[in-house]
From TrEMBL:
Species the sequence originates in: Trichocladium antarcticum
Protein name: 5'-deoxynucleotidase
UniProt subunit comment: Homodimer.
Documented EC number(s): 3.1.3.89
Gene3D superfamilies: Hypothetical protein af1432
InterPro entries: HD/PDEase_dom, HD_domain, YfbR/HDDC2
Positions of region (Disordered): 1-27
GO CC field: cytoplasm
Cofactor: Mn(2+); Mg(2+); Co(2+)
Catalysed reactions listed for this entry: a 2'-deoxyribonucleoside 5'-phosphate + H2O = a 2'-deoxyribonucleoside + phosphate
GO BP term, example: deoxyribonucleoside monophosphate catabolic process
Amino acid sequence: MSASAQQNGASANGFLKNGDSVPDVASVPNPNPTITGAWTVDKVLDTIPTGKPAQGSSSPVEYFHILERLKTTKREGWRRFGIYKGESVSDHMYRMSMMSMLAPPALASRLDINKCIKMCLIHDMAEAIVGDITPVDGVAKPEKSRREATTMDFITQGLLGKVAGGAVGTEIRAIWQEYEDSETLDSLYVHDIDKMELLLQMVEYEKRGQGKLDLGEFSYVKTKIVLDEVKAWAEELMKEREEFWGGQNHVHGEDGVAGGVAPKKREMQDAYYKKD
């Protein structure tokens, strides 16, 4: 089949009618704008084109299907800057999990690295249904937390409660809650890795944009990194960013309003990252 035929939605086997185009099957739209009234898991599940997952099965297949949405749900923050085909939620979590294995020895000796890897792969799991809520989306932090907690209950109890006696679901829910509570060293490390991964992606997109794309507002998260070992990585990365921009004027989100971030946006960032 020719490239032009493929672009026009033609099929070598004639499965698509003449003139039809292939629907967008490669990405999951943000479900939140379509939800009216109070947000619930069921309201989102009713919008899933592949079908509402059945609960209470002893098979994990329905859970496997839900995980696919993490592959096809884009990270929303980049879309505001016109990056519509950017990283997915699972892209983000995969690199986090690989990064978490590289803790400097002095820190690694105090961590449960295997649990940290699991936490990296679990921490944004609720976004398969909730979607990616950013600091500027106008969703209050308590409401964001409610949506994510009820989603994790649905996944770990509704979909996994009868799989292998519910043990895996219970473990996933506990690790997710540990991350949310942000009290253990393991969870603090993963929170820092989460922010470091965002900073890496920011710089990489900027470089690919060849100086026409300033994503500096995301540098704000550097101020929320708490562990010295991860702070050192962030400092190295920010030096790399400065070298890229050279003498050109660019946004310094780490400096807030003084760095070129709008006051209202800074206020939203502070609310989003504030610890309860």
